[in-house]
Write a structure and sequence with these properties.
By secondary structure, this protein is α/β, with parallel strands linked by helices. The protein has two domains: 30 residues; 242 residues, Alpha/Beta hydrolase fold, catalytic domain (Rossmann fold, 3-Layer(aba) Sandwich), CATH 3.40.50. It contains six helices and eight strands. Strand 3, helix 2 and strand 4 form a beta-alpha-beta unit.
Length: 277
């Protein structure tokens, strides 16, 4: 009996030590795939959980007034309501809805819709979070470009959207599909905010038709996940093609470090101000 009483505390201490040790690669607590994930919230009754075209795989979340209440919100008339389509980084799943909600509440006015696409996992070994036309995933049924088109079709049926104020925001893994969608020859997207992401011309349409369109690029020089040089390449390529580009930097490496809300608000103001008239 005495041996049992001394062993149990020892076992408990051992388990506590394992819990505090974190991962097995460096003894540090495991970090989320994307810093923005810590802003995730439980299910919110004010967020509409929808499916584009009735397809269960084409899931999207609308942050903003319901279509039935749209006329009651200031700014809903005139040319229509502005829309921001969001492609989250990291896993791209619904856990970022709290972060997207905070973007709408912090950086946008009440007349805006923030439409968050939820990434699809086609296979357990899938590498690309957001499969696109030039970087597909095995067994996919549709590309992210097609996914966006279906969502935009649904949104414009439910709301009066101002075609001059349709923007995108993508960060990290959400950057490549944002570039691909925004650079399509007949895209409805006027401008985009891309943060901490890669710029790979081989994954994108040709950079044409961007003259006069705004792009806000946000990247950290210390980013070891997505090379800073790629952000500089994006800036230079777009400027050469005639786009209006604002390029901002922050410290701390990959992630929404520093004054993220201030930068997002500044970025959205830049896109809105410089949208083609």
């Amino acid at each position: 009996m005495r041996a049992w009483t001394t062993t149990v505390p020892a076992v408990l201490l051992l388990l506590l030590g394992v819990a505090l040790a974190g991962d097995d690669k460096g003894g540090k607590p495991a970090k989320p795939a994307d810093p923005a994930a810590k802003d995730a919230e439980p299910p919110d009754p004010d967020i509409q959980d929808l499916r584009a075209g009735g397809d269960e795989k084409k899931r999207y979340l609308v942050h903003g007034p319901k279509a039935a209440d749209a006329k009651e919100v200031k700014g809903a008339k005139d040319g229509g309501r502005p829309a921001l389509y969001v492609l989250p980084g990291g896993t791209g799943d619904e856990t970022f809805k709290g972060f997207v909600k905070a973007i709408r509440n912090t950086a946008l006015t009440d007349d805006w819709l923030a439409v968050q696409l939820v990434s699809v996992k086609w296979r357990d070994d899938q590498v690309s979070v957001w499969p696109i036309e030039k970087n597909p995933a095995r067994d996919q049924k549709f590309t992210t470009e097609e996914f966006f088109a279906a969502v935009h079709k649904d949104v414009t049926k439910a709301y009066k959207i101002d075609p001059k104020r349709v923007f995108m925001l993508g960060w990290s893994s959400g950057g490549p599909p944002t570039w691909s969608i925004c650079l399509q020859p007949k895209t409805p997207v006027v401008g985009a905010y891309v943060a901490m992401s890669v710029f790979r011309p081989q994954w994108m349409p040709k950079v044409e038709g961007v003259k006069g369109r705004p792009f806000f690029i946000d990247h950290s020089p210390q980013d070891e996940t997505c090379a800073f040089a790629m952000a500089e390449q994006a800036r230079d390529t777009l400027k050469k093609a005639g786009a209006v580009v604002d390029f901002v930097t922050y410290g701390g490496g990959h992630g929404w470090n520093g004054d993220r809300w201030g930068r997002i608000k500044k970025g959205m103001e830049f896109l809105t101000k410089n949208a083609p008239k």
